[in-house]
Amino acid sequence: MLGEPLAVEFLVGGDWQPAVLLGWRHEPDGTCRVHVQAVVSGLHRTSWMQLADLRLPQTAPLVPRPLEPRTRPDLLLPGAERARRTPTPLPPLPVPRSLQPDTSRA
């Protein structure tokens, strides 16, 4: 594999332990074995194990923070109330064709 090893977890004694996935191979019986590296008692150990014995690391779900506006439109700068402009009126909308009088000649 090229690039960074993939973080995984494997089950030992009822607890999930962190490890990294180094590679994998397909066995003749159709199963997949993975080569993992883990720190056991302070030493790096590598081993082949069944793919079914691994999982991706589980993280606690993040609680989304309430969104705050990026700008403060309600905050006026000093002197802004006198500099506030009145909006220019928009031009009138055209009359739809269905409401225009029929000017065609028969």
Descriptive overview:
- With about 110 residues, the chain is mostly beta strands.
- It has a domain at about 5-55: SH3 type barrels, CATH 2.30.30.
- Helices cover about 5% and strands about 35% of the residues.
- Strands 4-3-2-1-5 form a five-stranded antiparallel beta sheet, with no helix packed on it.
- Strand 2 (about 15-25) and strand 3 form a beta hairpin.
- The longest helix is centred in the C-terminal third of the chain and has 4 residues, at about 80-85.
- It is elongated, with a radius of gyration of 34 Å.
- The chain starts with 5 loop residues before the first strand and ends in a 23-residue tail after the last helix.
Please summarize what this structure is:
With 106 residues, the chain is mostly beta strands. It has one helix at residues 80-83, and strands at 6-12, 15-26, 32-40, 43-50, 54-55. It has a 5-stranded antiparallel beta sheet with strand order 4-3-2-1-5, with no helix packed on it.
Please tag this protein with its features.
single chain; 106 residues; SH3 type barrels; mainly beta
* CATH architecture identity of the domain at 6-55: Roll
End-to-end Cα distance: 79 Å
Poorly predicted ranges: none
- State mean pLDDT (0 to 100 scale): 80
Q: Which bin fits the share of residues in helices?
A: under 10%
Question: What is the approximate shape?
Answer: elongated
- The SSE order reads EEEEEH
Beta-strand content: 35-45%
Biggest sheet features: 5 strands, antiparallel
CATH third-level topology of the domain at 6-55: SH3 type barrels
User: Compute the gyration radius: what is it?
Assistant: 34 Å
Strand order of the largest sheet: 4-3-2-1-5
| Overall number of strands | 5
Class computed from helices, strands and strand pairing: mainly beta
CATH structural class of the domain at 6-55: Mainly Beta
The number of distinct helices, counting runs of at least 4 residues, comes to 1
